[in-house]
């Protein structure tokens, strides 16, 4: 493992028309590698079940409560190392001196620390009634309530220096206009983000009703209609909330050397780089909305299960709506409140004396409709075979990938348009088969097919740009895939697996087995849509392009042999 102090060297090259691509990193690790994140603490839970209750049918009443005290610890960065970036050129070799340094520098402001802890308290309670009305109808009625008390967020006090900086003259604005006034023209009220330690309250509206039902048409469990609706709350991750304190305590900086011949003095220690930062550390200011809510999802489903001879089949349609996902956006604004000017964003208009203003709010949303069809013939020793087939159709859209909590391409998270989601393929088919063969060997196979996963990126229209018009437009496109056996470029994922399993009865309850697996037997290349293998072609109409030299998901053809004992 590389050390956490000293200098590290990153060697990269610049392919034509692309960003820098790292080749190798040696020496000390990145400042971002110095992380200390964890949680520990006691919890208590009690669940009760009351059976054989009778009133207009049979009831099984379930209820319970859970309480946890969790000590959260978070350190996001360290200040003992620096990374120096060197360009590698195929013609000229490796540059003798670096063109950039990345490092972290502690703030000189009092009372700040890059390592914070929070004694988080979590409480939840639920009650549910499983009500068998008659031989045909069963109802599941329940409600859950949760609350979380996180002192790190609730009791945080905005540093006085940050508060003073908001009320300073905007260095880019007309005389007499404060930075807060510039933000207000752009729709940001700083009072929504300034905390005095008492104006934030734990959200107490996490009521989560659940309704489910099943209706057995003939009372024989062969044809059953099923459905349900419910709400579920998640939580705003502490990994994001802690940045309000750790980012300002330990700023992160990229320093570019204008004159490569003059950067040798900075190679002798990270302290020389840290001396370049301002008295406030020059770091970014992360602020959180005083009225954050936890994200939640509402789900609705309706379907039918059937038993037809030896086969079990099901068909279900479900709808999921997700809201209030957390995201950071760029708070900087031009003096007139604009976020876009001449196609550019106000990266140079940060908090006076500090760096960029990063604001955290709720706002990520996605919604999806799925159709799930399945049929299963269970394997039995008597029949000697079994099979399953499952098909899923997904139609999903989102205003932002739920995993991308930094969203700097629009003024607010609500300004992002809904585009096709990159979370799932439109069509997916999984089929399995099992059959007994000679010498008591059981053979099985699995087929997985899916259409390409949509790609989310940006289209950059040609300028010039009108006032307030962004230089990029969020778009989605589905790349063409590959053929399977016959047909055109339909599939983005193809895989066929085989296995053979032999059991040996060693008596007295001891069972030995040998198993051979051939995974991805036909060595299909399944390109990773999110791993640099897909991009948007910057032209109209919008199309996505797969880099067939890019990363793959899954594994190439793999042989696996296992043996073991069961007793």
What does this structure look like?
This protein is mainly beta and 567 residues long. It has six helices and 30 strands. The strands form five sheets. The chain has an 18-stranded mixed beta sheet that branches. The two termini are 40 Å apart. The relative contact order is 0.09.
Short description:
Helices cover 6% and strands 49% of the residues. It has six helices and 30 strands.
Key traits:
567 residues, mainly beta, 18-stranded mixed sheet, 49% strand, globular
Number of helices: 6
Q: What characteristic shape results from the CA principal axes?
A: globular
Q: Note poorly predicted spans.
A: none
Termini gap: 40 Å
- Could you tell me the number of beta strands? 30
Q: How are the SSEs placed, and which strands pair?
A:
Blueprint lengths: L5 E8 L7 E7 L8 E5 L2 E12 L3 E18 L5 E9 L3 E2 L5 E7 L8 E18 L4 E13 L1 H4 L5 H7 L12 H7 L20 E11 L6 E11 L4 H4 L1 H7 E7 L13 H5 L10 E4 L7 E13 L2 E20 L26 E21 L7 E14 L20 E2 L6 E10 L4 E10 L4 E5 L13 E5 L4 E3 L1 E6 L1 E13 L5 E9 L14 E4 L5 E4 L11 E9 L1
Parallel strand pairs: 1-6, 14-17
Antiparallel strand pairs: 1-2, 3-5, 4-5, 5-9, 6-7, 6-8, 8-13, 9-10, 10-11, 11-12, 12-15, 15-16, 16-17, 17-18, 18-19, 18-20, 20-21, 21-26, 22-23, 24-25, 26-27, 27-30, 28-29
């Amino acid at each position: 493992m590389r050390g956490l102090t000293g200098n590290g060297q990153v060697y990269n090259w610049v392919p034509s028309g692309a960003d820098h691509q790292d080749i190798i990193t040696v020496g000390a690790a990145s400042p971002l590698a110095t992380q200390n994140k964890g949680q520990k603490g006691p919890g208590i839970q009690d669940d009760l079940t009351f059976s054989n209750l009778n009133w207009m049918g049979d009831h099984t009443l379930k209820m319970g409560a859970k309480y946890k005290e969790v000590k959260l610890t978070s350190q996001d960065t360290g200040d003992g190392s620096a990374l120096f970036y060197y360009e590698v050129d195929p013609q000229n070799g490796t540059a003798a001196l670096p063109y950039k340094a990345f490092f972290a520098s502690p703030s000189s402001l009092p009372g700040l620390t890059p390592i914070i802890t929070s004694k988080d308290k979590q409480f939840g309670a639920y009650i549910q009634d499983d009500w068998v009305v008659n031989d045909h109808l069963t109802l599941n009625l329940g409600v859950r309530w949760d609350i979380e008390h996180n002192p790190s967020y609730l009791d945080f006090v905005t540093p006085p220096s940050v508060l003073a900086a908001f009320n300073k003259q905007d260095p880019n604005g007309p005389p007499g206009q404060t930075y807060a006034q510039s933000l207000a023209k752009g729709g940001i009220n700083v009072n929504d983000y300034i905390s005095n330690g008492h104006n934030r309250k734990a959200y107490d509206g996490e009521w989560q009703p659940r309704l489910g039902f099943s209706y057995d048409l003939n009372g024989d469990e062969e044809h059953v209609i099923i459905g349900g609706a419910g709400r579920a709350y998640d939580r705003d991750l502490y990994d994001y909330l802690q940045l309000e304190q750790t980012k300002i305590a330990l700023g992160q900086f990229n320093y570019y050397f204008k004159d490569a011949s003059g950067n040798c003095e900075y190679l002798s220690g990270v302290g020389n780089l840290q001396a370049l930062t301002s008295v406030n550390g020059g770091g970014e200011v992360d602020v959180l909305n005083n009225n954050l809510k936890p994200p939640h999802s509402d789900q609705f489903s309706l379907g039918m299960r059937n038993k037809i001879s030896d086969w079990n089949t099901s068909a279900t349609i479900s709808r999921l709506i997700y809201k209030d996902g957390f995201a950071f956006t760029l708070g900087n604004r031009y003096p007139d409140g604009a976020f876009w000017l001449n196609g550019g964003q106000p990266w140079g208009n940060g908090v006076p004396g500090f760096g960029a203003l990063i604001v955290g709010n709720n706002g990520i949303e996605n919604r999806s409709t799925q159709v799930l069809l399945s049929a299963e013939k269970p394997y039995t020793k008597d029949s000697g075979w079994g099979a399953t087939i499952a098909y899923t159709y997904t139609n999903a859209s989102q205003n932002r990938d739920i995993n991308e909590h930094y969203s700097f391409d629009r003024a607010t998270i609500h300004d992002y348009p809904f585009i096709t989601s990159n979370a799932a393929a439109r069509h997916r088919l999984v089929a399995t088969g099992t059959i007994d063969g000679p010498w008591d060997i059981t053979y099985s196979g699995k087929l997985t097919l899916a259409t390409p996963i949509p790609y989310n990126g940006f289209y950059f229209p040609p300028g010039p740009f009108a006032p307030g018009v962004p230089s990029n437009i969020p778009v989605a496109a589905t790349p063409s895939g590959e053929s399977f056996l016959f047909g055109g470029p339909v599939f983005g994922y193809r895989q066929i697996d085989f296995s053979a399993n032999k059991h040996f009865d060693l008596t007295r309850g001891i069972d030995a087995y040998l198993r051979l697996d051939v995974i991805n037997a036909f060595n299909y290349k399944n390109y990773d849509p999110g791993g640099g293998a897909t991009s948007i072609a910057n032209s109209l109409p919008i199309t996505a392009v797969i880099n067939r030299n890019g990363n793959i998901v899954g594994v190439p053809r793999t042989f696996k042999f296992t043996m073991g004992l069961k007793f």
